[in-house]
């Protein structure tokens, strides 16, 4: 789907504040209410807008430890990959899972309260994921940038 300047501006505004009213949104992007609403609905129907969420402050929720884990599997056939990917879905502390190129198969991002909690997660869940050969953990010391906004270009 081709996006014009109004579509892109709608996306930029909604990424900054998904709770903005349609009246405010239409004013900010320079469209009247109905055409703006139609564009939003079209982008939702086309799967460009996939949902609206509330972002939480992990530190205020005592979830200040972020761990990045490289995972190498023993096998790389389709069933092995599918089994691993399905199993990782059930671990709430895993907030992201990416397949990767190169020597490692996956990159996980885990968010927990403490190093002790991570150690428990590692021993009781992560090492028991299907076909895991090797896990390599790296602890984030400080978050320098955190954005959920995609870089929407003007055109």
Describe this structure in words.
By secondary structure, the protein is α+β, with helices and mostly antiparallel strands. It has two domains: 5-45, Winged helix-like DNA-binding domain superfamily/Winged helix DNA-binding domain (Arc Repressor Mutant, subunit A, Orthogonal Bundle); 65-139, 2-Layer Sandwich (Alpha-Beta Plaits). The chain is elongated and about 55 Å long. α2 (22-29) crosses α3. It has a four-stranded antiparallel sheet. Helix content is 35%, strand content 19%. It is built from five helices and four strands; from the N terminus they run αααβαββαβ. β2 and β3 (106-112) form a beta hairpin. One of its GO terms (cellular component) is cytosol. GO terms for molecular function: sequence-specific DNA binding. Residues 3-64 form the HTH asnC-type domain. This is Lrp/AsnC family transcriptional regulator. Keywords: DNA-binding, Transcription, Transcription regulation.
Compact description:
The protein has 155 residues and is of the alpha+beta class. The protein is built from 5 helices and 4 strands; from the N terminus they run H-H-H-E-H-E-E-H-E.
Q: Averaging pLDDT over every residue, what do you get?
A: 94
Helix fraction by DSSP (H/I, runs of at least 4): 25-40%
The major beta sheet can be summarized as: 4 strands, antiparallel
Residue ranges: pLDDT <50 for 5 or more in a row? none
Strand order of the largest sheet: 2-3-1-4
The total of beta strands comes to 4
Order of helices and strands: HHHEHEEHE
Corresponding CATH architecture of the largest domain: 2-Layer Sandwich
CATH class of the largest domain: Alpha Beta
Organism: Salinimonas iocasae
Pfam family, one: AsnC_trans_reg
InterPro entries: AsnC-type_HTH_dom (IPR000485), Dimeric_a/b-barrel (IPR011008), Tscrpt_reg_AsnC-like (IPR019888), Tscrpt_reg_AsnC/Lrp_C (IPR019887), Tscrpt_reg_HTH_AsnC-type_CS (IPR019885), WH-like_DNA-bd_sf (IPR036388), WH_DNA-bd_sf (IPR036390)
GO molecular function, one term: sequence-specific DNA binding
